[in-house]
Amino acid sequence: MKLANGSTVAIVGGGPGGTLSAIFLLDLARQLRLQLSIDIYEPKRYNCTGPTGCNMCGGVISESLIQMLAAEGILLPNSVVIDTINAYILHTDQESARIDAPRQEMRIATIFRGAGPKGSEHQLPLPWQSFDQFLLQMAIANGARHLPYAVTELSREQGFPVVSCANQPPQRYDLLVGAVGINQKKSLQLFEALDFAYQRPQTTRAYVAELYYGAEQVQQHLGHAMHVFLLNIPHLKFAAITPKGHYATLVILGDHIDQEVIEQFFAAPEVKKCLPQGWEIPVQPCHCQPSIVVGPASNPFGDRVVMVGDASVSRLYKDGIGSAYRMAKRLAYTALAHGVAASDFKKHYWPVCRSLLWDNRLGHLLFACDNLFRFFPLLRQAMMAVLRRERCQAEGNACPLSSAFWNTFTGSATYMHIAGELLQWKTLWNLLSLLRPGRNSHH
Ligand SMILES: Cc1cc2nc3c(=O)[nH]c(=O)nc-3n(C[C@H](O)[C@H](O)[C@H](O)COP(=O)(O)OP(=O)(O)OC[C@H]3O[C@@H](n4cnc5c(N)ncnc54)[C@H](O)[C@@H]3O)c2cc1C
């Protein structure tokens, strides 16, 4: 089962998983002197503000991903990168600690997935461009065809996948790529009902809101830093406010994020410090409650069909776009260099999903340890003292705890790498030596 000259590919979903798959398939096909015909089915209008054009995310991408994309010839223009971040500020109920980018070049970028938050259309012409739109245009420039329809039915005809949309004739393809993300349950059902025993990934709910501060207030209260909050609020696992031009993006992760948790969050004194004075929660900010992947899908491939991006597996709580990049690249290589049978995907595509999956298991463990810091004030104080100490001694010295935090927040490194940093004797020794009461007071 191989793709040949003139083979056809349907990609259902034009988020990063889908568009990057198209770009890599077309690039590799060109190198192999093969002509592929790729259709991307995507009904979303990325040039619209608010939910119509948005794929609901925090919009943070690590410098390592920007560099990997650049190496592929995907150069993010300034209009897509809204802000760059060069530090994290970790806030606890007792104090705050700043964690700078380990090296100057390791900054991160913030983007909008759609044309911008609901209401930003009043600022026309918009000074930024949608990240997803940029990738979709790049796929089209590379030779893909964009079909602005939602896929409503999937079936097989003599073993070949057939894609149907309302009011369109069904189309038969040599390969079907499922890049539908995890927010549209009906789309996942279509793939589950096909014949390859696919089961959607496990998910939990998150909360994202775009808060309008105005550029000056963003600079004054957030600077070029992402503000992360380690708060002891029930159900809240992670909360961060990220500067994005005139806006600040709030992301809250945790189980059962409801109005009460959100109000408790805004009422916390350490959060108030990051809000403009007199600022009140807007009655209806541009907000959403998307699903986020916490466990992998089962059987994400079959003969002539493969799932990519969130619909397959994603890095736990971070770098979902980076995971989609890695999977898309391997998918293209597998399909063109080896074939599109389930056995080809199992041998050549599955290892990249499996390595994410194993790393996520370690990620779950690390996040469980994070709860220790949340619930035990003494441990929290010791951690903040180590971060302070590392910052004072940063010049030419290793800062394993700061680096572990940086990598956790940015998604620049695997959980395995982060665990290695946390388990260094220097980190453990620093933490233990500061655990005795009275030792971790401010210097
Ligand atoms: C709260 C939150 C914060 C996040 N923050 C970050 C972050 O800061 N950085 C990061 O890297 N990742 C982040 N992520 C993860 C990131 O959003 C995802 O990993 C990424 O969007 C996955 O890309 P995808 O292409 O697989 O899916 P998606 O981006 O969800 O795209 C799926 C596409 O498929 C289309 N589609 C669905 N059904 C159909 C159909 N039937 N027919 C046609 N098209 C269809 C949809 O319209 C959509 O455009 C975050 C996620 C959440 C929930």
Question: What's the layout of helices and strands?
Answer:
Elements: E1 8-12, H1 16-31, E2 37-41, E3 60-62, H2 63-71, E4 83-85, E5 87-91, E6 96-100, E7 108-110, H3 131-141, E8 145-147, E9 151-157, E10 160-165, E11 171-172, E12 175-178, H4 185-193, E13 202-212, H5 215-221, E14 225-229, E15 236-244, E16 247-254, H6 259-267, H7 269-272, E17 286-288, E18 291-295, E19 301-302, E20 305-307, H8 320-338, H9 342-375, H10 377-392, H11 400-410, H12 415-422, H13 425-434
Parallel strand pairs: 1-2, 1-12, 2-8, 5-14, 12-20
Antiparallel strand pairs: 3-7, 4-7, 5-6, 9-10, 10-11, 13-16, 13-17, 13-18, 14-15, 15-16, 19-20
Helix pairs in contact: 1-3, 1-8, 8-9, 9-10, 10-13, 11-12
The chain binds flavin-adenine dinucleotide (FAD).
Structural commentary:
The protein is α+β, with helices and mostly antiparallel strands and 443 residues long. The chain folds into 3 domains: 191 residues, FAD/NAD(P)-binding domain; 93 residues, Alpha-Beta Plaits; 68 residues, no CATH class. Helix content is 37%, strand content 22%. The strands form 4 sheets. Strands 5, 6, 13, 14, 15, 16, 17 and 18 form an 8-stranded mixed β-sheet that branches. The protein has a 6-stranded mixed β-sheet with strand order 8-2-1-12-20-19, covered by helices on one side. Strands 3-7-4 form a 3-stranded antiparallel β-sheet. α1 links the parallel β1 and β2. The longest helix has 34 residues. The radius of gyration is 23 Å and the shape is globular. The model has no long low-confidence stretch (mean pLDDT 89). The structure holds flavin-adenine dinucleotide (FAD). The site of flavin-adenine dinucleotide (FAD) has 40 residues, from α1, β3, β13 and α8.
